[in-house]
Amino acid sequence: AVVTAAGYEYQAAKYELRLSGLLAYFKEKGLKGDDLERFYIFGGECNYLLRLGADYKLHAVKENGPGGWMNSTKHMSESPGNWSESEVKSVLDMAEASFNSSMEDQNMRARIIRKKRSVGLIPKADEKITREALDEAVLRIQSELDNSKINLPFCAFNGGRDAWVDVGNKRVGVQVLQSYLGVPPEESLHIGDQFLNTGNDFAARSVCPCVWITSPEETHIFSSLF
After folding, report:
1. Do 119 and 99 meet the contact criterion of CB atoms below 8 Å apart?
2. Residue 156 phi, psi (nearest 5)
3. Which of 36, 42, 38 is nearest to 54 (CA)?
4. How far is CA 76 from CA 113, 115, 178, in A?
5. 92 by DSSP, 3-state: which?
């Protein structure tokens, strides 16, 4: 499974574009039916679950009702199935306000993007935001959310050229997959490249063993081993 911060709701084609190389590899290796259907992608950290079909296309996994992934994981206190929209809005409102303050205080040439479950701070066209400025913005909103009365899990992270706050995080994403697919933590392994406290893989460290990679080449090496 891939657990990613990329959040396109259930617009499968956008995830397929990001995974085009991997999907082409599956096709090149001649994977069929059951093997393909074992592959999942969790978008927006833990918000949008899709499953690969025998047609090499991603399909949304239903959220509610019998067998729905949200319905099946409501026993977990942090499961997205238990979130209220008012709490989600509170996280997004705080994130947007904090990023606006960071832009003003640091004189950033940036703009805000607000999605259904995330808020992004991104550079304007032909501009660049320094890593230090992005880290400062992330540490600021982390502190503000940690000291608020909001109880929802969140992830504030430096994406390299931008910064984001997602409602939910990869810890929740991994735990939901473990529960939904019946895979115990000791049989799970999270591979990522953002394990510092301003990265979006950091939270997964608490729920399963992890491998910290630094390049696509290392990802390929470890994927081949497993």
Report:
1. yes
2. -110, 120
3. 36
4. 30, 25, 11
5. helix
**Comparing C-alpha atoms, which of 22, 21, 17 is closest to residue 36?**
22
Q: At what angle do helices 85-106 and 131-146 cross, to 10 degrees?
A: 140
Task: State which amino acid sits at residue 103.
Answer: M
Q: Determine the pLDDT at residue 158.
A: 94
User: What amino acid is encoded at 87 in this protein?
Assistant: E
Mean pLDDT by 10 residues, the chain (226 residues): 94 96 94 94 97 97 94 95 96 98 97 97 96 96 94 94 96 96 93 81 87 85 80
Q: What share of the chain is helix, strand, coil (3-state, %, to 5)?
A: 40, 20, 40
Q: 3-class DSSP state for residue 138?
A: helix
171: its two tokens: 């810890």
Q: Let me know: does 87 contact 71? Beta carbons within 8 Å.
A: no
Supply φ then ψ for residue 71, to 5 degrees: -60, -40
Q: Side chain identity at 187, as an amino acid letter?
A: E
Q: What Cα–Cα distance (Å) separates residue 107 from each residue in 103, 125, 130, 164, 192?
A: 5, 16, 12, 18, 32
